[in-house]
Write a structure and sequence with these properties.
CATH topology of the domain at 621-727: Immunoglobulin-like
Structural class: alpha/beta
CATH class of the domain at 621-727: Mainly Beta
Radius of gyration: 26 Å
Strand order of the largest sheet: 2-3-4-5-7-10
Helix content: 25-40%
Low-confidence stretches: 475-485
Number of strands: 29
Distance between the termini: 55 Å
Mean pLDDT: 95
Shape: globular
CATH superfamily of the domain at 621-727: Immunoglobulins
Bound molecules: beta-D-glucopyranose
Strand content: 15-25%
Largest sheet: 6 strands, mixed
Length: 729
C-alpha cells in the first residue's frame, strides 16, 4: 500500500496538487504530469498494479478483506493512484463497523443520517489505507428478487439518487467514491452474460436519473457493470461511458471496470472511455503495448484517459493528505451510529397496538426462529463486513427486557404457549440472496484470464498450478461475517444469488402460523434485503422489517420494540400481494428488456393496490397532512400535524404527475421527500425540495417538458398522496 504524504511537496504530483489547491486547473496540471510520463507509465495507469495470478490467489485467500487494491500509481512522479476497498455496508477490510445494509438505510429516508454513515465508513476505509471505494451501489431495484437488492436503496430513481448522493458526500470527506454499477445491473445470477435492451426513454427517465444526480454532486468515479446494454458490454460501451457520462452530463472523473470479468475487448474498452481495468494487470496488460505499436490504439486516447484519472487524484488531494487515526475503526461513536441507523431503518408494517411493549406488564417472552440467535448481517460477497462483534436480535431483546423471562427455540412454537408475547424471527440469509459467484457460471469466461505461466502476470514460481486451482475453487467463505476479527475468505464460490421466490421459506411461514396458534400476541420480525410477500400479515399482531441490521441490530430491535425509539423506516419499494403483480423476473435470462414501469409504478398503471405501498411505514404516533400545500420555486411547503400522543417523525412525500400527458408514464412518481419531527398535538411546516425535471420526457437526445398541467400531491405513502399542491410560483 502506498501512502504518499503530500504535505512535503518534493514530488511533481504534490507540487501540482499544491497549485490546484491555490486555484490552478486540475486538468491542466494533470495534462502536464502526463506529458512527462513514458508510454509504459501511461499504460500502467490503465489497469490494476497487481499481477493477475498472484493477485487472484491472494484475493481468494482472504486478501480481499485484508488490504486495499492499488492501481494507477506512478512512483517516479509521486502519483499515488488509487487503493480500492469496498463497501456499501462498511469497510470490508476486517475488522470494521458493520452498518445496516444500504436497503435498510434507504428505508430511513434520511439523507442527513446517510451522510453521517458515509463519513464513518469513509474514515474507517481511509484509516485502513484505502483511498477509493465501491461503497455507492445504486442500481435501481427493478424487482425485489435481485440478489444484491440489499446493496442498493430501493426502486425509485429520485429516492435512490438522494440517498446515494448523501453517502457519496459523506464518504468523499475521506476517500474517493465510485458509483456502481453503470448501468442496468439489476439482476445477479446472469450478470456476466445478460444483455439488457432498453429504449432511450426508459434509460434516461428511469434507470439513469439517480446516477446523473450523483455525477452532478461530484462523485470521483464510476464503476462499469458486467452486463451488456443494447448489445455492448458496459465496460466498453461508448454510448454510456462517453456520450452520457462525459458529453451529456459533463462529468469529471474516472471509470473503473467491475472486477476481473468487466471487459472483453481491451482495446475497445480504452476507445470507449474506461479508464482503469480493475483490479489486476490482466487483459490490457497483455494487449495494449502491441496495439499502440501497431497503431490500432491511438496514444492520444490513452493520454486523455490517464489525464482524467490524474486530474481526479489532484481534485481529491485531501484524501492523500489526511489519514484518520486507526482508533476510528469500530469506535464507540460509529457503533452508536450503527445502532441509531438500525432503529431509524426498521419498518413497522403492522401494529394492532402490541408495540411498543410495556416490559412491566410482561412476565415471559418467547423468541422463535434460528435467525434470532445468529449474526445475520448480509451476504458474503464483495460487501461483506466483519465487525469485532455483533449483537444478535436475541441478545438485544434479552438485554432490553430486564426482569422478563426470555426463552428461545429455533422451531418449537410450543414454548410460546404460556408466554405473553411471541417474537418470531424469520427471513433470509446469505444462502438465499446476495452476490453470487459460482465456478460453473465462470467457466465460459476463463478465456479472459492470462496464461498461468505468463512471465509478468503469471503464477509465482513457487506456486503449483494445481494448488492455485484448489485455492480458487475451494476457498469458500462459508464462515459467518460477524463475531470475529478474522477476515473471511473470498472465493469463486460465494452462495446467494437472486431469490427463488418473494415468499418466506415454507418452514418460516409454518412457524408464524404455529406461533399464532400458541400465543395471542405475535410480533413477526422479518430479516432480508428487500420485499417479502406476506400472506400471513393480517393474522399476527405486529410485523417489523429489520433488514440485515448491522452489528448493533439486536440493541436497535430492543430500542424499537420497547419504544425507546420509533421504528423510523418507510418502505423503499412496494410490497405486492403476489409476485405476479410485478414485472416478470427470470434469473437465468440471457436477454431482458427494461421498460418504463416496475414496482409501485406498474401497480398504479395496472390499477392494482399494493399490499404495502412504497413509502409506507407506521410509527408510534399518527400524522395528517393539512390541506393547501404550496409550491414555491422548487420547494413544496406543507404542514403536518401529529395527531397522536407521542413525539414522532413523518416522512412527507411529494408525487408528481402529468394527467393529460400524451406519453406512457408512471401515473405518478416521487419528486421529493423530507423527514420532520413533530411533538404530539403540534403541527410543523416542512419544506420539501422537489425535482420537477423528473417529469420531463426524453425524446431523440433532448429533454422535453410537455405543455400540460403538472399535478403535485403530498402524502405519507404512495397510495395516499392525495393532498393537492397549489402552484404559488
Ligand atoms: C462486484 C462489485 C465489487 C467488486 C469488487 C464485483 O464482483 O460486482 O460490486 O465492487 O466485485 O469487489
Amino acid at each position: 500500500m502506498r501512502h504518499f504524504a503530500l504535505m512535503d511537496d518534493t514530488t511533481p504530483f504534490a507540487a501540482a496538487a499544491a497549485r490546484v489547491a491555490a486555484g490552478a486547473d486540475h486538468r491542466v496540471e494533470a495534462a502536464s504530469l502526463v506529458a512527462d510520463m513514458t508510454v509504459a507509465e501511461k499504460l500502467g495507469c490503465l489497469d490494476g498494479d497487481t499481477p493477475f495470478w498472484p493477485g487472484l490467489v491472494d484475493m481468494v485467500s482472504g486478501g480481499y478483506y485484508r488490504h486495499s487494491w492499488p492501481a494507477a500509481a506512478v512512483d517516479r512522479l509521486g502519483i499515488p493512484g488509487i487503493e480500492f476497498a469496498d463497501g456499501p455496508r462498511g469497510c470490508v477490510l476486517a475488522p470494521a463497523t458493520a452498518f445496516p445494509v444500504s436497503m435498510a438505510r434507504g428505508a430511513s429516508f434520511d439523507p442527513d443520517l446517510e451522510a453521517r454513515v458515509g463519513d464513518a465508513i469513509g474514515a474507517e476505509l481511509r484509516a485502513r489505507g484505502a483511498t477509493y471505494t465501491g461503497a455507492v451501489c445504486m442500481n435501481l431495484l427493478r424487482h425485489p428478487a435481485w440478489g444484491r437488492a440489499q446493496e442498493t436503496y430501493g426502486e425509485d430513481p429520485h429516492h435512490v439518487g438522494v440517498m446515494a448522493e448523501a453517502l457519496t458526500v459523506g464518504l468523499q470527506r475521506h476517500v474517493m467514491a465510485c458509483m456502481k454499477h453503470f448501468a442496468l445491473n439489476s439482476m445477479e445470477n446472469a450478470r456476466f452474460t445478460v444483455d439488457v435492451t432498453i429504449d432511450e426513454r426508459a434509460l434516461h427517465e428511469v434507470y439513469l436519473p439517480h446516477f446523473r444526480r450523483v455525477a452532478a454532486a461530484g462523485v470521483a468515479s464510476v464503476m462499469s457493470a458486467y452486463n451488456s446494454v443494447n448489445g455492448e458490454w458496459c465496460g466498453e460501451n461508448a454510448q454510456l461511458l462517453r456520450d452520457v457520462l462525459r458529453r451529456e452530463w459533463e462529468w469529471d472523473g474516472f471509470v473503473t471496470s467491475d472486477f476481473i470479468f468487466g471487459l472483453r475487448n481491451p482495446v475497445q474498452s480504452v476507445a470507449a472511455g474506461l479508464n482503469i481495468e480493475m483490479p489486476f494487470r490482466q487483459q490490457r496488460a497483455l494487449a495494449l503495448a502491441e496495439a499502440v505499436e501497431s497503431g490500432t490504439l491511438d496514444m492520444a486516447v490513452v493520454d486523455e484517459l490517464v489525464v482524467e484519472t490524474v486530474a481526479t487524484l489532484l481534485r481529491f488531494a485531501h484524501v492523500f493528505r489526511n489519514t484518520p487515526d486507526a482508533s476510528v475503526v469500530a469506535c464507540p461513536d460509529h457503533r452508536d451510529l450503527a445502532r441509531e441507523v438500525a432503529s431509524a431503518s426498521m419498518v413497522l408494517v403492522r401494529n394492532d397496538g402490541l408495540l411498543p411493549l410495556r416490559p412491566q406488564a410482561l412476565r415471559k417472552v418467547a423468541v422463535l426462529g434460528r435467525l434470532a440467535a445468529v449474526a445475520n448481517l448480509g451476504d458474503h460477497g464483495s460487501s461483506n463486513v466483519t465487525p469485532p462483534q455483533a449483537v444478535t436480535l436475541l441478545e438485544g431483546l434479552r438485554s432490553g427486557l430486564t426482569g422478563v423471562e426470555v426463552v428461545h427455540h429455533d422451531e418449537d412454537a410450543a414454548i410460546a404457549g404460556d408466554a405473553d408475547v411471541a417474537v418470531v424471527v424469520v427471513g433470509y440469509t446469505e444462502a438465499d440472496e446476495g452476490e453470487f459467484l459460482d465456478t460453473s457460471a465462470q467457466v465460459n469466461l476463463l478465456h479472459l484470464f492470462p496464461p498461468m505461466e505468463h512471465p509478468e502476470v503469471g503464477l509465482p514460481p513457487d506456486m503449483d498450478p494445481d494448488e492455485a486451482f484448489a485455492v480458487l475453487t475451494g476457498g469458500g467463505s462459508g464462515e459467518e461475517g460477524g463475531g470475529s476479527d478474522d477476515a473471511p475468505q473470498a472465493s469463486f464460490t460465494v452462495p446467494g444469488g437472486d431469490r427463488a421466490s418473494l415468499r418466506l421459506h415454507a418452514e418460516h411461514e409454518a412457524l408464524i402460523r404455529a406461533a399464532a396458534e400458541a400465543c395471542d400476541d405475535v410480533l413477526v420480525v422479518v430479516m432480508g434485503g428487500s420485499a417479502v410477500v406476506m400472506p400471513w400479515l393480517e393474522d399476527v399482531s405486529a410485523t417489523l422489517l429489520v433488514w440485515y441490521p448491522g452489528m448493533e441490530g439486536g440493541h436497535a430491535l430492543a430500542d424499537v420494540v420497547l419504544g425507546r425509539c420509533e421504528p423510523g423506516g418507510r418502505l423503499p419499494f412496494a410490497v405486492p400481494y403476489d409476485e405476479a403483480q410485478l414485472v416478470p423476473f427470470d434469473r437465468d435470462a440471457t436477454e431482458v428488456t427494461y421498460g418504463l414501469l416496475h414496482g409501485q409504478w406498474k401497480l398504479d398503471a395496472d390499477g392494482e393496490a399494493a399490499h404495502l405501498p412504497f413509502g409506507f411505514g407506521l410509527g408510534y404516533t399518527t400524522f395528517a397532512v393539512e390541506p393547501g400545500p404550496t409550491l414555491v420555486g422548487d420547494t413544496v411547503c406543507a404542514t403536518v400535524t401529529n395527531t397522536g400522543d407521542r413525539y414522532g417523525d413523518a416522512v412527507v412525500q411529494v408525487y408528481g404527475s402529468v394527467p393529460d400527458s400524451v406519453h406512457q408514464r408512471p401515473p405518478r412518481r416521487l419528486v421529493g421527500f423530507a423527514r420532520v419531527s413533530v411533538a404530539p398535538g403540534a403541527s410543523a411546516e416542512v419544506d420539501v425540495p422537489v425535482d420537477l425535471r423528473l417529469l420531463d420526457v426524453r425524446i431523440d437526445g433532448t429533454w422535453v417538458r410537455e405543455d400540460r398541467p403538472v399535478v403535485l400531491t403530498v402524502g405519507l405513502d404512495a397510495a395516499h398522496a392525495d393532498t393537492v399542491v397549489t402552484d404559488a410560483r
